[in-house]
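Sequence in, structure out. First:
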Amino acid sequence: MSYAMKNSRRAGGVQTPMLKLPVERSYILIGLVLAWFLALLIRAFYLQGMDNHFLRQKGDERSRRVIELTAHRGMITDRNGEPLAISTPVESVWVSPKDFEITPERIRQLGKILEMSEADVKSRFTRSQRDFIYLKRQVPPETAERVMQVNAPGVFLQREYRRYYPAGEVVAHILGFTGVEDNGQEGLELTYQKWLAGKPGNRHVIKDRLGHIVEDVESVQPPQDGHDLAISIDRKIQYLAYRELKAAVIAQKAKAGAIVVLDAKTGEILALANLPAYNPNNRTKLNRNSTRNRAVTDTFEPGSTMKPFTAAAVLESGKFTPASLIQTAPGSFTIGSATIHDSHPEGTLTISQVIQKSSNVGAAKMALSLQPEYLWNVFDQMGFGKVPHAGFPGEATGRLRPYKTWQPIEQATMAYGHGISVSLLQLARAYMAFTGDGEIRPVSLIKVDAQPAGVKVISPETSQAVRSMLELVVLPGGTAPRAQVMGYRVAGKTGTAHKEENGRYAENRYIASFVGLAPASNPRLIVAVMIDEPSNGQYYGGAVAAPVFSQVMAGALRLLSVPPDAPTNNILPLESAPEVKEVV
């Protein structure tokens, strides 16, 4: 590189060298600078005038918001329009961290209002890199108003709804509950999620730093509210059933209990309750064991409540009549290496007396008189081993093993409810075969407007004959005089079954049950009761479950204004009607 030195300037006697670039290089430098500025101008014009999507996007990220407009969840009512599940408006507090100025005073104020620790509030911002975080969900409107009075930039509200259940634990197992996002988690809330939830809308707006809406930038898309749902439950009968079941479980020191009340004419479930229960409005200490709808999802061996179906099978076969005789002496019956026993040995009994006295030997001999396939078909038509399709999630199928695998002892024990398992709802539905003309109708948790068509499973003559046998059960000499109802003829059957444990039957653990119908002259209701492991000295179905049936049936018939079919003095004193005890 060459330099020209000039000596024309002097500073304080010191010569200063002067630098001079070649003219060509100066032009090149000036040209590059002008080209750079021209490129910037063209780029700015392109971004702002022709393709402004990028700048819009960045601007929208700072000021534009999409507000979700929550749909109002449909209400659930009982059959008479009484509210069972309603949605109340609440607010959720959310924060845009990049717009929020964290100061100790604001943290303290928000924590105090929202009942959160200052450390918890602060951690919401330091642990998240998102542009949207919830500070607290579903706070009351008055609390949300106090939050906004703090006047903190970056703090916003979002309207939501919280589910409230006026009847609390009384209907908890039927309705289930919703989660924090207002989606069904259990019960009918889950089954009918789409029907109840509706579709949320949205609103595109521009907000300033304080969260104030400046303008709408697009047309509002309104939410589509959910539909109301009228279920088959009668709230008054439901409360009655729950109250009596709870009293019995406490009095008998039982592990659990369940009850089902069916409309025999329509198949509608008028009441369904379980214990233990839970409060769906306060689930902070929810025990998952308490949320089980035992009447629908749990199965048990029904014991002697199966004997009416065995009687129906032999009557339908034409081999027996209600007056046919069966020898049950000496109170035991040996099949191979196993022996069946009666709790109270009898002699020769009619078919009707086998049901009245609940003879295991008599039931076993009836079952063994039939071909396995024939008996299996009767049980199958009654709905055992099949889902009841009541409209509840997790309905149990029970267990009805294929007849080709039956051994003679298994066929015999199945006649009195061992080796077969059912849910309480299945059992109640099957008893519909004895309420009229031998038809079983679909069961439903949803209110129906017309009587659904049924499936004929036995003849009307057999249905009437078995119903007459069941009437004997609550009379002197039967196993359930405590099931009597003043002013009404009652028919039903007790069950007292050992519980299965580790493949064997436990010695001192029982399930007590009773299934009955009334008025016997023209049945309107079916009530099924199950008490799991009563441990207060009584465990027979006639002593533990039958009184619950009596109280619930009496109250329900009166609530429905069902005309009496017996005089008001029809109840026989218990001391003059000794119970016949049973255990299978």
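Second:
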Amino acid sequence: MMSLISLKKRLALPRTSWQLCLLAAIGGAFSALLIILFTLSIKWLQQIYTDQIGDYSTLDMVSRFHLPIIGALLILIFARLTGYQYLRTGIPFVLHRLRVAHGIMPLRNTLNQFVGTVIALASGFSVGREGPAVHLGAACSSYLGSWLRLPFNTIRTLCACGIAAGISASFNTPLAAVIFVMEVILREYKIHIFIPVMIAAIVGSMITQKVFGPAHALEYFDKIQLTVSHYPAIIILGIILGVLAFAFNRYLTLLIKHSSTIHIVPRMLLAAFITGALGFTIPYAMGTDVSAVNFSIANEQSFQLLLGLLIAKMLMTISALGLGIPGGIIGPILGIGAIAGTCASTIVMHYLPSEHLHTDFALMGMAGFLAATLNAPLAALLTVVELSHQIEIIIPALIVITSSCLTSGQFFGNRSVVIMQLEIQNLLYREPPIEKSLQRIGVIGAMQENFIIYDELTPEQLLMDEELLQSRDFILTKHSSSGENLSWLEINTLGEQRNIIEHELQPLSSQATLAQAYLSLVNRRQGAVAIYDKHQDDILGLVTFEQIRQYLLEGKIDS
């Protein structure tokens, strides 16, 4: 028992340790295995009715219309069994749970994420795999930490590790997964978190490579041929992508806002009808990014056809995600960006003919649109670099990313679509700066363990006991004037005069962070909380308000 307590004390402090790295690797492995099961389930379903996985053009028009409706009905049936209130999933929900529950996911939400998204992706809805990967990865690792009753700050770190492992396992992009976690999920860079997240991402990528091979999704792209003469066109493309990102984010959040009062059943059926109607005539807009990207770059399509595909893809994605179909947003964003880039290439080729301009501009479109919609430029850059396996893409990608982000943010006030979704759904995600700082330390790592508990001791009796007055231990009593709860008799010495201040101790779980201790004491600005393990009578130590104040002022804490 003492070794477990010592382990928890070490993990409670914001330091890199081999124990935390080991837990990150274990959580990453579980997350990767779940993502493998998730991916194989989608492929198994699609193999039943399609000749090629992800290609809905092989289906007849009536089947393309019926398939999303059947998928929506199956999602609703499963949601009915688990409870419609547990349908909330994806990246926004994970950010919300990080704020209110330290990243621990309700089991029913996780089940709906797995089953619902498998059906949605197999049914041709324009949703992605990365939202489910984030949710499932976070759930796996947070369940591990919760089962071990680790401090909440450690569970948050494990949650971030699971997310990185999930994304890395889905796309075989470990570096982009690490940056995505830091830039989009945690929105901070801390070395004690960075290293475990990197380990989890590596483990996730290695495990999935054993099952699916080492290839990246877009490795078949030709080697990039962009030159300096193409850079003005890339800047213009970035500006267009910034405008598209603003329109995409705005109309998606507006649809979420105005449809929130409608029951989930008609909402999902409407999304299915829109997907089926558009897929009836434009099958390449169905599914995630792969089908649309392959079609747009396979041959030299006409501008009108590509523009129609772009509009259909945006409408499908906005309606599916806005009306509640479970799934991610990054896959469709990559598809929309690739189509937009290919549209631009058909115009540029009239002035600057090039053999590989379609594929080059498709990659630029992915980078620019992903950066502008998520407001995550570094994650977008590394995503396209790892997906295409081309270092040469960095300079032109930086140009299109900066121009799209500047246009989207500076001229239209656009923000991350994930943050906009959180705000429109009134989901908490922001943390006050003080609480955010205190969340990094668990109370078990900061607690004072030198205490003595007396069954009957009054302040008057303590003043008469010179030996106790000289003791450096915290004097606790179970029976005091404040009631039946445990109290701390604080000895104050002013010159030769001593007085006793009696503080009633509020019990606090050893999993809690200093943020919970601070909130318990901030109104009184004095006293302490009693840290217990499994039962409130099993006191492990105390955390005083003075310790918390010292940490906020000096950045260190004495334990």
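Remark: Residues 18-49 form the longest helix (32 residues).
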